[in-house]
Amino acid sequence: MEAVDLRGIKVYPAPSSADLVDFATRRKGILIAVNAEKMAKATQRLADLINDNIGYCDGSGVVLACHQKGASQACKIAGCELWLDIIARRYKDSSFYFIGGRPDVYADTIKQLRIDFPGINIVGSRDGYLKTDADRSALIDDVVAKKPDFVFVAMGSPKQEYLMAEMLARHKAVYQGLGGSFDVYTGRAQRAPKWWIDHNAEFVYRLIHQPSRIKRDWIRVKFAWWLLRKKF
To answer: Is residue 205 over pLDDT 90?
Structure first.
């Protein structure tokens, strides 16, 4: 699979979640969700990290940009669904490490995973509160010692990406940042209804129910301008 360059950020235009999982399993590295907000606000440090790893289309705008560059097979792959697809496809013969969330959210996530995926091999897990450098070092050391095949980190971007980069430097595996996916998985947060998702309007639904997001979502106007002017 060849990456597509979108204004200096490389995105892999996977035609399906299954293809992306297979590609990541062979290549190893960090799966990084790329959407309009992340593209428009990426620092050089984050852009370099994406380009060294596996950026994928997490937003419909990025899919359209890939189409403009000739990658007509590109499809939207929601990060909050991708990690569960990975587990469903690989849990019988792979090992996993989970990091992130408040202590109660993290505990409920691990409990529910053991129910939904009987026999899942969870070699390590902890909440997302790394209060000291010693906590961070101990976590990385544990990942290196346990050697999981897949590591999921739910801390928000770009914090989670920078932590995964440190872990990847010492242990090759497939990593994915999950943001608030543990909250969705445990029922503490709700995604938009299916109709909004299917019509690429999930961000509109979130904006209606959380108007304060306008400070973040204005960036989509800039991204839309790039699309209209074919600036990719």
So the answer is: no
